[in-house]
Amino acid sequence: MTARAWAELLRVSALFTVPGDALAGAAAVGRRPNRSTALAVGASLCLYEAGMALNDWADREEDAVDRPHRPIPSGRITPRAALTAAGALTAAGLALAARAGRPALTVATGLAATVWAYDLRLKHTPAGPAAMAAARGLDLILGATATATATATPTATARATTTKAPAPPARAAVPAALPAAALLTAHTYAVTAVSRHEAQGGSTRAPLAALTAVTALGGAVVRDRPGETKRASAPARLLVTALTGAYLRTAGRPLAHAALNPSPPLTQRAVGGGIRAMIPLQAALAARAGAAGTALAVMGLVPLARSLARKVSPT
Questions:
Q1: How do residues 268-298 score in pLDDT, each as one tens digit?
Q2: pLDDT at position 169, please?
Q3: Is 82 left (phi over 0), alpha (psi -120 to 50) or beta?
Q4: What's the pLDDT at 172?
Q5: Which of 36, 141, 209, 261 is deepest in the core (most CB within 10 A)?
Q6: How far from the centroid of its chain's Cα atoms is residue 255's Cα?
Q7: Could you count the other beta carbons within 10 Å of the beta carbon of residue 143?
Q8: In whole angstroms, what is the distance from residue 41 CA to residue 307 CA?
Q9: How many angstroms separate the CA atoms of 34 and 78, rounded?
């Protein structure tokens, strides 16, 4: 029972949507995942789970009315334990980021501050969706920064002279990752706007707006970027198209159902679909950057997320 309660509190089925942020960030700077990328993934997982625990601690009174089955209002986990877990996971995430280098720690600190500000203050304000979206964008940039910092070390730079392209400096990681981060941020904003109605339902506008945004994002992912049309091979373009199709299918269908019937169950299903859709979106962004192997590895998380979501809700 205790393990089940913690799995619900931490939304463990949504964990599989996290590693793809850092991996897509690594692809955005044109590098293969390395040790620092793994550290960024670990930091992301810790900070994500810290946000989940802190979220339920902050919402414990509201959940006692709307979701009495949740771990804290049902008495299976104490508020003090949830808050302690949030603090410990935040510290662990920052420690892992620090091992990836000072630039990564700087981004992780901003990410942690955004998570805590969202849960404690911004969630129920008009700035809530923007704060949640910013957290996802920073998570991708964390992976990009950590990866680029590792490749900028003297040893890595010396090895890079034997490759076709030298390792980018760490300071160039953020600009390189911004386009991918912007797309992931926009998706997160749309899903978060829908999630604000999942307890009571009744909003047709939010899922319809999110469906429109998801469709536009799919078009932006498959659209050729300037100067890349000639470089992209047919198989690479086909992979991006297939992954984008998986993204549109995963997010679009439940959003359409919620727009037609904005009941709480269908709205919650739309939010869950939007969360799971982050995986094919991350994979499509990696493939778009030319990292086909990374993209396929990210997509390997889909069946795991789907299987666990049947046991523990991601929302």
A1: 999 999 999 999 999 999 999 999 999 999 9
A2: 59
A3: alpha
A4: 81
A5: 141
A6: 18
A7: 36
A8: 21
A9: 38
Query: What's the whole-number average pLDDT of the chain?
Result: 90
Q: Is residue 273 within 8 Å of 200, Cβ to Cβ?
A: no
Other Cβ atoms less than 10 A from the Cβ of 12: the count is 17
**C-alpha dist (Å) from residue 42 to 36, 46, 189, 191, 282:** 10, 6, 24, 24, 17
Residue 314 CA to residue 273 CA, distance in Å, equals 9
The 10s digit of each residue's pLDDT in 97-133 is 999 999 999 999 999 999 999 999 999 999 999 999 9
DSSP class per residue in the chain: -HHHHHHHHTTGGGGGGSHHHHHHHHHHTT----HHHHHHHHHHHHHHHHHHHHHHHHTHHHHHHH-TTSTTTTTSS-HHHHHHHHHHHHHHHHHHHHHT-HHHHHHHHHHHHHHHHIIIIITTSTTHHHHHHHHHHHHHHHHHHHHHHHHTSHHHHHHHTTSSSPPPPGGGHHHHHHHHHHHHHHHHHHHHHHHTTTTT---SHHHHHHHHHHHHHHHHHHSPPTT-TTTS-HHHHHHHHHHHHHHHHHHHHHHHHHHH---HHHHHHHHHHHHHTHHHHHHHHHHHTT-HHHHHHHHTTHHHHHHHHTTS---
Closest-CA residue to 217 (of 169, 183, 267): 183
User: At 116, which amino acid appears?
Assistant: W
- What is the per-residue pLDDT for 170? 64
User: Is residue 133 within 8 Å of residue 192, measured between CB atoms?
Assistant: yes
Both tokens assigned to 300: 């390997």
Structure tokens at 87: 């603090």
Measured in whole angstroms, the distance separating CA 45 from the mean position of its chain's CA atoms is: 10
